[in-house]
Amino acid sequence: MSANSLLFSINNEGKVYALSTNGSCWREFMYLGLEFKALSAVPHFLWAVGGDRQIYLHVHGLEIPIRVKEESYENERWLPMEGFSGRLLPTDRYHFSSQDGTKDRSIDHIRLPSMAWQWEGPWQLELTLDGQPLDHDGWTYAVDFPAQFGPAKQWKSCVRRRKWIRYRKFSAMNSWCAIAPLHKDPTQEPFIDISIGGNQMPYASPGTLVVWAITAQGRVMNRTGVSTTSPEGLKWINISIPPNCDIKQISVGPTGLVWGLLWTGRTIVRKGVTKDCPTGDSWLEVKPPQDTKLICISVGYNVVWAVSSDSRVWFRKGVEGNNSGTSESAAMGNGWLEITGNMIHVSVGINDQVFAIGEFDKCIYWRCGITAAELTGKKWKKIQANMQLSRTSSSASVVSSSSNTKHHSLTTLSETEPEKKTNLHLRNSWEESHSAPIEHTLPVKPQRQSRPRSQINTEKIDLTGKSYETTLKNPRAWSPVRSVGSVVGMEAQPDSDSSVFDVDSGMLFDDEISQTAWGSCETTWSYVEAGACLVDTVQIPHWFADSHKVQNSDITAGWRIQILDYLRNRNKNQSLDFSDYGIAVEDKGWTRSCEARLVQANNSTEECIISLYWFDLENTGTLSVFQPDGTIKFILNLEELTSVFVSSEPGCPRIVLAVPRQTECSIKIQFMTEFEQEEWLKMLIDIISQINGVTGKPSANSVWAITNAGDILNWDPLPAKLSNKKDGMYKKEFPVFGKNILSGYSTSLHNNFPPGSILKIVGCLFDEVQRFYIDFTGPEVKKQRHKIETEVSEIPFHFNVRFDEKIVVCNTKNFGSWGTEERHELPLAVGQEFNIEIYCHAQAFSVIINNKSYCIYEHRLNPESITSVTIQGPLKLYSMEYCTTSVIIGADEMFWRLMGGHLRRVECCEADVVWGISHDHRAWVYTGGWGGGMFQGISSNTGIHAMTDTHTYCVYENQRWNPLTGYTSAGLPTDRYMWSDITGKHKRTREHTKLLNRHWHWISEWMIDYNTPGGVDNDGWQYATDFPAPYHGKKLFTDCVRRRRWYRKAQINTEGPWIRAGNTALLDISLWAKGDEVSVWAVTVPGDAIYRTGVTPSTPTGNHWEHIDSPQLLMAISTCNNVVWTIGRRGELYHREGISVENPGGTTWKLIEPPKSNLYSHKTTGAKVISLATTVAWVVMSNGAVAVRTQISKEQPGGKEWRYITDSEISFKHISSVHKDVWGVSTDGTLQRRLGVTADNPAGSSWQRVLTGAAVYTSARGGSLC
Question: What pTM did the predictor assign?
Answer without folding.
Answer: 0.80
